[in-house]
Amino acid sequence: MRHRYAASDTAAKLRVLEALAARGARLRSFAALSALHDDLLFLCAFPDSGAVVALARAALDRVEPALRRLSPRQRALADDTGMAGSVTHYAHPVPIARWLAAQWPLAADIDWAIADTERLDALIRPTLARGEEDGFDGGELSTRDWMALVRDRSRDGALAWLMASVERSRAGAEVARMYDAAPMPLRWSLRQSAGAVTHNALPVRRPAVRTALRRPAGDAATEIAR
After folding, report:
1. Is the pLDDT of residue 216 over 70?
2. CA distances (Å), 149 to each of 42, 47, 170, in order?
3. Does the pLDDT of residue 129 top 90, yes or no?
4. Cα–Cα dist 158/62, whole Å
């Protein structure tokens, strides 16, 4: 019923949304949760009324708890979808890595499961002060342990520390080029994250409501740009 806009359809949508917003959804498969997630996002984008938007948003807040109730195998299917509670894996270039580190310094980090630490060492060495070089190359600590030792773990992840070190270093431009030549694999946790597609919406006071879905008048590209 999501794309039907008769008064009876709107009333039916509101009944379903009220139940979802109040109790959430108890589903057994990620496929079912993903379909519900898409429906709720659709209703936020093309609502019948302000009440539909408000209830759809409230129902979207129930998506992450529903994902956590799935089996580990089903939860893993959510990764790289952008859904709240999932994990996104990607090797971003420096500008995006820098932005992620600034916006989500603990949630976005190096994917240590697949990171090439020798290549990471090559990125870190040009950023070191002279007094740090012997400790870094001494072999007593792994690259991950050394980064954990020198950064503020309550505030920054390893990625945030690396991006800040590149910014401070005289060799920062060279290191950035090295990074972009072979970006590090990153892991971004979307647990309770505004960056998840589930919650990634502009706040609006008064949504534009629909009474039907129809093709735009005139040139579609111009209307989309507008």
Report:
1. no
2. 46, 50, 23
3. no
4. 31
Per-residue pLDDT, 132: 85
* DSSP letter assigned to residue 82: T
What's the pLDDT band for 28 if we cut at 50, 70, 90? Answer: very high
Give the other-Cβ count within 10 Å of 145's Cβ.
9
Residue 214 has pLDDT above 80, yes or no: no
8 CA to centre of own chain: 36
Pair of tokens at residue 40: 């709720």
Residue in 67, 71, 90, 97 with CA at minimum distance from that of residue 191: 67
Nearest to 13 by CA among 50, 65, 67, 66: 50
Q: Which of 103, 88, 119, 226 is nearest to 183 (CA)?
A: 119
For helices 117-124 and 143-150, angle between their N-to-C axes, nearest 10 degrees: 40
Residue-level pLDDT at 215: 65
Side-chain half-sphere CA neighbours of 139 within 13 A? 0
Contacts of 221 (CB under 8 A, 6+ apart): none
